[in-house]
Every structure is written in structure tokens, then in C-alpha cells.
From TrEMBL, chain A:
<keyword id="KW-0539">Nucleus</keyword>
<dbReference type="GO" id="GO:0006289">
    <property type="term" value="P:nucleotide-excision repair"/>
</dbReference>
<dbReference type="InterPro" id="IPR002464">
    <property type="entry name" value="DNA/RNA_helicase_DEAH_CS"/>
</dbReference>
<keyword id="KW-0547">Nucleotide-binding</keyword>
<comment type="similarity">
    <text>Belongs to the helicase family. RAD3/XPD subfamily.</text>
</comment>
<keyword id="KW-0378">Hydrolase</keyword>
<keyword id="KW-0411">Iron-sulfur</keyword>
<keyword id="KW-0234">DNA repair</keyword>
<dbReference type="GO" id="GO:0043139">
    <property type="term" value="F:5'-3' DNA helicase activity"/>
</dbReference>
UniProtKB/TrEMBL annotation, chain B:
<dbReference type="GO" id="GO:0006357">
    <property type="term" value="P:regulation of transcription by RNA polymerase II"/>
</dbReference>
<keyword id="KW-0863">Zinc-finger</keyword>
<dbReference type="InterPro" id="IPR001841">
    <property type="entry name" value="Znf_RING"/>
</dbReference>
<dbReference type="GO" id="GO:0005675">
    <property type="term" value="C:transcription factor TFIIH holo complex"/>
</dbReference>
<keyword id="KW-0539">Nucleus</keyword>
<feature type="coiled-coil region">
    <location>
        <begin position="123"/>
        <end position="158"/>
    </location>
</feature>
<keyword id="KW-0175">Coiled coil</keyword>
<feature type="domain" description="RING-type">
    <location>
        <begin position="7"/>
        <end position="51"/>
    </location>
</feature>
<dbReference type="InterPro" id="IPR057657">
    <property type="entry name" value="MAT1_CAK-anch"/>
</dbReference>
Amino acid sequence: MLELKRALDAKGHCLLEMPSGTGKTTTLLSLIVAYMKAHPLDLTKLVYCSRTVPEIEKVMEELRKLMNYYEKEMGMEQNILGLALSSRKNLCIHPSVSKEREGKVVDGRCYSLTASFVRARHAADDAVPICEFYEGFDAHGKEFPLPPGVYNLDDLKEYGQTKRWCPYFLARHTIIHANIVVYSYHYLLDPKIAEVVSKEISKSSVVVFDEAHNIDNVCIDSMSVKITKRLLDKCSNSITILETTISNMKENDSKRLEKEYKRLVEGLRDATIARETDMALVNPVLPSEILEEAVPGTIRTAEHFVAFLKRVVEYIKTRLRVQHVVQESPAGFLRDIHTKVCIDRKPLRFTAERLASLIRTLEISDLTDFSPLVTVSHFATLVSTYTKGFTIIIEPFEDRAPTVSNPILYFSCLDSSIAIKPVFNRFQTVVITSGTLSPLDMYPKILDFHPVIMTSFTMTLARPCILPMIVSKGNDQVAMSSRYETREDTAVIRNYGNLLVEVAAAVPDGIVCFFTSYLYLETIVSSWYDQGIIDQLQRHKLLFIETQDAAETSLALINYIKACDNGRGAVLLSVARGKVSEGIDFDHHLGRAVLMFGIPYVYTQSRILRARLEYLRDQFQIRENDFLTFDAMRHAAQCLGRCMRGKTDYGIMVLADKRFSRADKRSKLPKWIQEHLKDTNCNLSTEECVQICKRWLRQMAQPFSREDQLGISLLTLEQLQSEEMQKKILQRAQGV
Amino acid sequence: MDDYQTCPKCKTTKYRNPAMVLMVNACGHALCESCVELLFAKGSGACPECKCPLRRNNFRVQLFEDPAVDKEVDIRKRILKEFNKRQEDFPTLREYNDYLEEVETIIFNLVFDIDPTNTNKMIDNYKKENKDITQKNRNRQSQEEMELEELLEAEKAQQSEKANLYVNAELEEKKQKHKAREKLIDELMFSDADAKSIVASHVQATAALAKEQPKVAAQPSSVVVKSSKFSSGVQIGLRGQHTNAFLPIPKQEDLPLYRYTAPVFDYDGPPPPPIEKLGKLNYFANIRAANITERAGGYTEAMSCCRALQEALGGLFYSPQLTHKTAVLATNSSTQDTDDMETT
């Protein structure tokens, strides 16, 4: 809180690492809300970004508790409006549209019911269907602001149902004057969406990125484009649709096209772009000076533009017809496209804008078909706008199946700071926080910003409730490692198996294991099967495996939880960087031990990664090895953190790789884990590890009540106000 | 991929004959290579689809999936050779954009055979009118192209430099580590000191080295890439001729010559008498004449007298309620009165 307050006072950015389960969310919310109440002019809004819908819901729950507390203590209604925003898919209450399961389809159908021209048509002809909820909102909702309170997604839907207003547009409209907004990263980071949703958020806001250990990857993904052969074929189809629609319109209603043309000649920016329902197509970030210029003459008329698109698509098709991997810079691509099909840089830059305008003019209501074309137009615009920080990689086939031709063009962003720069520049305070951000100094480097505060917090614990250990060798003294050279070694695989079996025999309830990749997981499990380790394991616990299929994995998870709940005990084998490692908590008996088999390095042969490493090295002076280790360790820490979700929880963390005990790896673990990792626990064999486990578990199994924590990790009001404690707090505030 | 490509004449597909190559000519219809050889044995003939007369040596390998695009690109390249004006050749962006659209229309017409006579006329007209500019522009690159070229060159240079540097740095590092280890072993073997203290000092030394490492790593970044420019900013090498490293010679604008028009003052009062008439109207009677020294500088008594009169009369009709127009009207009507006053 102290550090956060300092950052708010300094109006700078900060980077905080707080162990999970210690009330990170509550701390952030309560301090920022209090600050908002104390300095209503300096701080007007809190934007809280989280990753998934369940996490958003959790934040809303915390906020509700906080507000209830305020009400109880202050004895009056609080004038604070907090709300959650999610996609149309999660907020739609239209009877038929909300039945759709895919987000894109919901967006498309919503657009076809609420676009301005559809509504105009409806006014003329009642047979054209529109969305009654949007109409209701449009007619009344804008005048009546949402009453203060805390609204999560369900509350919004309910409110919408009773008032017959569309909750999605209501939420989007309310963002402007709400005090607290909770939504997903993408609404702020993805330039395509941020332009529409978050444009009007004022400068004096605080932005919090929670669970932000992967923020650089989110930034990169939001600026990257992937083009496959199938996508291009779909593009060709939609271009033909465009052609026929244009010729139809020319015959029937040429006025509209002329109007659009005139507007483009004048170089005016589209007035309709401000209309909120027409947002389904938006352009990626462009420097504003370009947007002010007129659309170049080459793509001004509709036919010319369609021919232009056709050429772009055909050109990319020829590029995909390669036999070997090609890597080139945007500049090289631009030159090539100029010589091959005579396309200049400038019209390319306007492609996205022009396509959006054309689709609006043609009044095409079903947008789902056009998403491939939109992707290509974004690619064209990005490639011609940015010459630095991007690369183009064309792979004719996947590395795993070199005989099957499956050409893919990756336009990949190498610089994660490009997408997040506007956020840092615009808001006075940006808080980046997560349970595992170590090593902290890497984030300012790769995101290119200057934090005023950068701290890693530890936990004050009444008992040593985590037990990190580094197991480096098996009982036969063969070193354990997932190094490439020893991967296939049966001795190493057997040692890993024995470790798991012995830990499974000693630890009650659930055990979660993480492997470095799906491939590695599969090979290990198959050889365990041959060695009979699986049979031994199943004597103690049930076995579940995470696969790449999401449905299968969630089924395995449900059964895993069931097995843990009824006391049978279970082992879950999963993969670092997979779904399990990112979003699912194994608190209490669900995860009494976490085993990390090997160091989860990324697949280093990937060309995109290589390009990014090179870029990082050249631009930010980050050495390849440093970045790889950083990336591996943050994922390892993320996996380990799964088992600790609070102070009453306890769990064993086993790092089974010799390389973890080296100083460069060990020092990159979060501080709250490092604190408990003693030197004596750094180079253990399987047997020693099991001995320590047993002793520790016996200690942990003692009843642990609230009274034990009092005075150490939990304070009553009297204790807090006692002189001794006050002194301690003061000392800390001055000492840091 | 492309298995479904078929020659329209002999119906061979790429799937059945992987060696098949499709060719296109000016009309934009595809033919496979063997058909071309068969049909155009004499060197010229008609396209089997549109009966357009074609020459054999104009056949080229089809690049794009859609032969129409091939045709369009072909025409485009031909047209753009002539229509190569740049934005610098136009006074406003608007005109440049209009020009671009015109070019696009011409190409569009040619591709779809719309109104060929008129289009060809337009092209011929343009050729005649803009012979010089076309010729001139052919020899110089546009600003944008130059920018791209420069970027590419810089990228290349940077890449090779950096790659070398980092490889060297890494080698160096390895060597040092190796040396340190050997030194330690030597010391342990031959020195009489306590083994523990030797190891401790070694650990210290490596830690100190490690601290220095970041500096070493950071250094290569500061090493400047081999310059391709003189200090004045002129590019080294042949391409320097084309870049506008020197200030461009100011363009002669075809604007009308400057003409002086006397400024009209709004005195908002009776017009003061002109400076030439002051003597006649006897204004100098009451003021001191300029002496010799004053006149040497070009000063005459008329100047100060005129200034004083202007100041005295200016703003006499000013009233806050009256708009500007009525004020002017008032001056017009009152001119006669003032004339009378002066004569009396």
C-alpha cells in the first residue's frame, strides 16, 4: 500500500510483485478507491484490467465487499459506480442472438441488427428486423445514467432485462462516467478495439494490469497477423461478393457510392465512425497525421479499390507459394510489392480505413464473411506503417510435418512496447502487478517504460507454509535434467518417475506435475508406461493428463477435483504454458505438491522467437540467454504459484532439474519463494527430498487456527494501533 | 497446391502433369506451355479464347492464380512507365490525387476494354503534353522508394555488424571463463596456500568479472555502424548523386508578377488633406520651417504637419454604437463640410 500510494502521489507507473492469495486485489481496490475519495480531482477513474471472465467476476466480488464495508462504516450510500465490461457474447440478452456460442457470430449478428443503416431501413420498412433492446437503450438509456453501485456481468444483464435495454451498449456508454471499470486487457491493449472502447477515458485515471506476467505476449499478439492459404481463398470469395454488390448498387442506387466518393475526395474523416454501433470494423493504430490526409486517388473509387485488394491478395498468394522459409523486413516487403504489382506504400496504408468505409457504404450487414479480408487489410496497413519492430516470416510447412505443404505468413511484432506505449503515455499511473513478476528489471526493459516504484513483496507468515526444494539427482546419483542431450536418457526418465512415485506415496490428496512441453509429456508418459512406473503410481493415486484439446482437459480437471475431494487422491500431469498453468488454482487439498520436471524453456528453434530475440538484443541490449532464462523462470514460478492461494494454505514445490540450483536461475524466482528456499534444500536426491517432505507435512498437519496467526500475519485493530506496531510501520515507511 | 489449375485448351491439370506451366499473353487468357508451342509454331496467331492476335514471344509464365491480375499488372507496368509524375510535380495534394485517379481509370478501362478509342486518345494526349517530365522522372527515384532503399541498406549493414560483434563478444567471454578456471586449477595444484582461501578468492574474482560483464555487453551497442555518409550528410557512393543532399534550386513559379496597390486607410473621420497640398492650403504658416541640418536627413516640415493632421482628424466620427458601415457613410456625407471649413 505504501509503495502504491507513492506511485499515485508521483503520478508515475509502478511494478509490484505480490504473492497470490495475500489480498492483492483488495489492497489495490481499497487504496485506490480511498485515494479517489480523498483526491477526487487528481484521480477520477480506476481501470482494472484482468485476463479472463472468471477473474473479472472475482474482482467485482471484492469490490462489492469493499463497498458494503464502506456503507457499514460510513453509514450512507456510496456514490461510486463500478462495472464490468465484456464482449457481446457475455452480455447479450437478445433471445436468439444470445444463443450463439461463438463470439464472432454474436458480434456479426448484433451488427446486422443494430447498424445505423439497418435501423434507417427499419424506419422505412417494418419487416427489417432490429434489436428491441438496443432500440430501448437508444431511446431512453442515454439520458438516465446507471445508479451508483457495483454491477458485474449478471447484474448488468438483469438490469437490462428489467429496463429492456441492451446491457452491452449500456455498459459501453457508462464507461465514460463510471468510477471503476473492470475489463479484459484487450480493451486497452489491442489497438483495434481500444480505439473504439477506451478512447474517452480521461488522463487522470489509474490503470491496473492484474496477472500481468504475460503482458508482453499479449501486446505482441495484438499487433501480429497470421495469414494462411485458406484465409486468402476466403478473401478472394469476399472480394467477388464486394464486386457484385458494387455493380448492383451502381445499377440501383449509384448516389450512395458517389456520396462516399465525394467525401473521400474532400479528405474528410468519416463522420459516421463515431456512431457506436458501426464499430465492427476498425483500423489498427495509425499515426494521426496520416489519418488527417485524404485517401490517395488510386483507391478512391470503389471499383479501383476492389481491383487493388485483388492485387494485394494475389500478390500474397504468390508469396505463399515458396519452397523454403523466407524472412524479410517490412521495408523489403514493400519494395517487393512495388516491383511485382506496382503498389505504393501510401495506398497500402489506407487499406484498412478504406475497406471499412466501403463496407459501410455498401451496407453489408453480415460481417462474419469479411473477417479474412479485414485481417488482410490490417496486415497491409500495419506493414506499410511500421518499418521497425516487425518482421515477416513465410513458412511453407510446419517444422513437424515438412512434407505437408501448409504455407503461413506470419507478420509478427517483435517489440512489445509498441502496443503498450499509448497506455503508458496517456494515463497518469499504470500499475502492473502479478504474483510472479520476477525478475522485475526485465519488464521495464521489454516494455520500454520508467517505473517510479518497482518492488517485490514477501509474505509475513505464521508458519513456513511453502516448502520449495530443488531436486537435482535420483537415488542412483544420476543428475536429473530436461536438457536436450539427456532428454531421451532412460535413466533420467526413470528417476523422474521414481521421484513422482515416492512423492505421491508421501503426500496426501492432489499433486500437480508440470512438464516443459506436450511432446515431452507424451514421450515421458509412454516410457513410464513401459517401465511400469504408471502402475506403481496408480497404486497411490489416480492419474489425469492435460491435452491440447480444451474440452478433454476440462473433463480431466473436473474428475481430478472429484478424486481429490473424496479423498482418493490424484496426480495431474500438465504442461507449463498450458491452460492449467495459466488460469486454474489448486488451493488447499487440490494441490498439496507441485512438481516441475525440467526448466520450461520456449521452443527455441521457432523463427518468430529467434527474430524477437535478435530484435531484443539489438534494440534493448538484452542477451538471448537472459531473455530465455527470464521467460522460462517466470513460467516456472507461475506453475509453482498454483498451489499457494492464501495464508492458511500450504504446499510443497519441487523443482526437479539440476540447473535450477545455479545462481542465475535461482535468483530469478520471486522473492516470496526464494525466501523459503534454503541452501540446504538446493541439491537434494529423491530420498532426501521425500524425507524432508514427510517431516514438513507432519508439522503442517497440526491444527492451524486463527489465533495462531494473530499478532504475526493477522492483526486486530488494537494490535494495529499499539505503539509497538505503529513504530514498526513508521520505521518501514521511512526506511524504504 | 494449385492442383486445380487447368489449361483451357488441352485440359491438362497441374495434378496430372506437375511439370505443366501456364503462360499468359496480353489478352489475359492462360495457355499451357505445350499448347503455346503447338498453336504458335509460326511465331504468331490468335488466342483460342478471344481470337485476339498474339505474338509468341510475348507469352510469359503466369505468376498469379488469376490470369486477369497478370494482365492487369502487365498493363499497369506499361502505363506507369509513361504516367510517372510524382507528388512533387503538383502544387496541391488534391491535384495529385486527381491525377492518380485518372491514371487508375485509364488502367481500369484498358483492362476491361471500356471505351478503348477515347482511352487511347487520352494516353496519347498525355504523352505529348508531358514528355519532359516523364523523361526526367524516369531517371530519378521517388522519395518513398529512396527511403525504403535507405532503410534496407541500413538494416543490412547493421545486421552484419551486430552479428560479428556479438559472436566476438561471446567468444571472448568463453575464453575468459576458460582462462579463469585454468588459473584456479593451476593455483590449487602448485600453490601452498589454503585451498579454501584460493577458491574464495577465485569466486570473488569471477563475481567482479560478472559485474563488469554487463558493461561489456552494453558496449557493442554504442559502437557506431560503419558510416555510409560524410559528415555533411552526403551519401558515400554512387547513389549520392540522386539523393537531394543539396538544397533544391528554388522552383520558378508561374505566378503573375507583383503589382503595387496603394493601401486604403479607414480614418473614421474627415479625410486629412494630402501631403502635397499642405503648402497650398497655407498650413505651414503656423509652424516652424525645417532647418538645414534637419533637411539634410530628408525631413520636411510637411511630414510632421501631415502626421499631426492625420492624428487630429482620425477617429472623430467614432462612436461605439455605430457599425463600421454607417461610419463610412458618415465620412462620405461629411467630406463636403470639411472642404468648406478648410477654404474659410
